[in-house]
Amino acid sequence: MRREKLKLKVKALGISTGGPLVAVINEEDAKILDLHPSDRIKIFHGENFETTVVDIAKRSSRIPKGSIGAMDELSDSMNLKDNSLVTIKVARKPLSLDYIKKKLDGYHLSREEIEQIIWDIVHNKLSDVELTFFISACYCNPNTMDETVWLTKAMAQEGQILKLNKKVIIDKHSIGGIPGNRTTMILVPIMAAAGYTMPKTSSRAITSPAGTADTMEVLAKVIFPFQKMKDIISKANTCIVWGGALNLAPADDKIINVEKTLMIDAESQLLASIMAKKHSVKSTHVIIDIPVGPNTKITDLRKAKNLEKKFRQLGKKLGMEIKVILTDGKQPIGNGIGPALEARDVLKVLRQDIGRPLDLEKKCLLMAANLFRILGKEDGLNIARKILKTGKAYEKMKQIIKLQKGAPNIKPEEIPLAKFEYDMIAKKTGKIKSINNLSIAKLARIAGAPKNQGAGIYLYKHIGNNIRKGEKILTVYSGTKEGINYVRDSLGSMADIVVY
Amino acid sequence: MRREKLKLKVKALGISTGGPLVAVINEEDAKILDLHPSDRIKIFHGENFETTVVDIAKRSSRIPKGSIGAMDELSDSMNLKDNSLVTIKVARKPLSLDYIKKKLDGYHLSREEIEQIIWDIVHNKLSDVELTFFISACYCNPNTMDETVWLTKAMAQEGQILKLNKKVIIDKHSIGGIPGNRTTMILVPIMAAAGYTMPKTSSRAITSPAGTADTMEVLAKVIFPFQKMKDIISKANTCIVWGGALNLAPADDKIINVEKTLMIDAESQLLASIMAKKHSVKSTHVIIDIPVGPNTKITDLRKAKNLEKKFRQLGKKLGMEIKVILTDGKQPIGNGIGPALEARDVLKVLRQDIGRPLDLEKKCLLMAANLFRILGKEDGLNIARKILKTGKAYEKMKQIIKLQKGAPNIKPEEIPLAKFEYDMIAKKTGKIKSINNLSIAKLARIAGAPKNQGAGIYLYKHIGNNIRKGEKILTVYSGTKEGINYVRDSLGSMADIVVY
Lengths: 500, 500
Fold this sequence. Notes:
The structure is a homodimer.
Chain A: E1 5-12, E2 22-26, H1 27-33, E3 40-45, E4 48-57, E5 67-70, H2 72-78, E6 85-91, H3 96-104, H4 111-122, H5 128-140, H6 145-157, E7 170-174, H7 184-193, E8 198-202, H8 212-219, H9 226-236, E9 238-242, H10 251-262, H11 267-280, E10 285-292, H12 301-317, E11 321-328, E12 336-337, H13 339-351, H14 358-374, H15 380-389, H16 392-403, E13 420-425, E14 430-435, H17 437-447, E15 456-459, E16 466-467, E17 472-478, H18 481-493, E18 497-499
Parallel strand pairs in A: 1-5, 2-4, 7-10, 8-9, 10-11
Antiparallel strand pairs in A: 1-6, 2-5, 3-4, 3-6, 12-15, 13-17, 14-16, 14-18, 15-17
Helix pairs in contact in A: 3-4, 3-5, 4-6, 6-11, 7-14, 7-16, 8-13, 14-15, 17-18
């Protein structure tokens, strides 16, 4: 017959689910409580209790009858140890499941329903399967603009919020996919030097050779507790830190993790994901860079323009002034690809060194000009250029590096690169016809970036440049000889750079 | 820098995923191979190799650098033990993922694409998240009839196929949700006694108080290896066994498991699920019973008729003659609810005992008559009635029970019931207005069915019957006093039986 509760002995499994709170119980015990996979149980331990998803072990040496296996997230959350005694009871399933089914059936969700779903995601109350149903539902039955606004706000609210008590707070975002596109580290010092507050949180590379956080980490620390970040901002009016350490819009990471499985990226999810982070820091003026090109995230102009419109609509509903620019995404920006090489490029531009990557500088100035325009300054391009030329942006960057415990006076050429090199040489004289973003990113990763900061690729040429037979097209840097060989073998098989 | 392969030491985790082959590796090792969650690795061990989903442990005491955690399905499949040494390499993701994305994007799938997806599901190559994306895709973008045919065939082909070398093979299916609806155990002996081949595989209860396999198990064994089942059929022309032990259309169970999470049931999935099992046993003539009622699976007549049409279309494409009957699903069928009580009902009908449940008998005769009609016999109702009246059906059932190692001569009243009883008494004189299928099923489960075979509910009355104050409406049977108390408490709070 059924029982209402059971006393079980904990086995700490020492394995992490990567999110959901999951307890594993034996099939026999499941029968006693009439529990089925994906049912919920309430676990009581001393004065603590927690509701979790239940997994039923069909036959398991680790979870005999009378025991309960706790995945790391659960052990941590309830402070459970091996042999702790807990009591479990059947619990109601989260309300979210009804709302997810509703969305899957093509109905629109209310603000409250979306808030409940996001709360459950953030608090690890949904299993991966349930979260996947939600993501599929939003993918197949695209969110309305209202739903997207509620999703964005809910994602921001269920995380850390930065309150700076400033009238104007600026921010930027570049849609990914372009190697070397390190505009943040130049744009931020320009705007901050102009007196604007720009609390910048950046991401690390997932499948690219370097994220802004990885590149900034070459020059300074990027991991700070929330309060410490606020201190830095109060001194420099800005910061360039890793957002991953700050719990901003935490639902987003969990959603992206599932989306990656099929490489899907629902438009409304992309919008909410980006804007939730801007909303978390209470941005008022934001520039969004959408690179358009054959081997990048947004491949066609019609889609880019539609996205631009949506960003503006969403911004309006969130009380933000948004400027979207569609930029040339057909090749990498700058010369260096990989954290150290990109940090060198950034410093060269800020220091106005000879031989600095002018394409990167130009793009940053364009972004600054557009930001100044929505801030009410028509002469933005000249203001930005002046800030850069006079060294004010570089001074600001040195202040940021110092506050973030780095070495402000390091010179570009002092930044160490990986010790093995390999040059790719032009086999004929001609012009560079194309450089494939995906191939370059992949080669730089094979070389070891971003894990090895000094690994990566240095590009000597861009599309349209003349090249002579025997001239270097690029240099690969890797920490090991094997790495170099591996890249060299891959270079042959990839149509990465075409000379014609 | 990246490496191409790694040698790792196995940790047998002693936990089952319930399906997918999953290996867990340390975050550090993942970086070396540039692996991300849901990527695939190929594992080499001696002469064996296997491709699995990789899970990345962010911080785990159980999976230090240099080790690889194997979930039970993987350990079993490759015969891995603690401290076995294996080599791993990055593997390509399954082609299915592209097809699943295609379906999610609203495109139709080809036969080959569906076959690949089903192959990957059966061989545990898809993670739960990936499988959920497939199920969502089919739910949001319903399968065409062609897709449903291919899905049905693929699900059957990727499992055990029963080849009996008979021109006519008959089968039946009842859509679930009606407690006591044990028609199989009466219909099968009638049809087999009439000389037809009817290799019946049945399911166990999932959320109901008894499945046909649970009820048959009161009288005989129901778990047989495939070859043994064939032997039984060769002697009796029929059998009544548990399909779960036979690996028929195994993809179906995995799909249903995920669907249960949100209680969704895509129509095309329901069709494929039922028909794949008929296709696996090469059925030629099939009767499908769709009960329609307020507390059952199919609640409205329009939906039932649409389903009827689809079943016929699908049958045609599969070369099966299908007869669908829409039956009254507003109350339980028969008197007993729970394995032993239902087995008693079945034997009473087969023995033509006084006091047998006439509603159950009538329904079985109706189903037999419809089967005879599609088999070309117009006088089916009389044939079936005669087979039942003359005891031929009972003799056939005794033969089946004997071949399945049961006690063929057991009398209904000799079947043991749970020892504690509780009578629900009418508080006023009147007529039975309604009996809620869901409540009755839940009460019988609370009493202990199907785990305790003797537990359940005996209904003395059906809708429309007169009842006097003080008369018994039902008796509850449970293995413990606590069970009785629990049911009694629940009886008060449920609008299970309304007398007016």
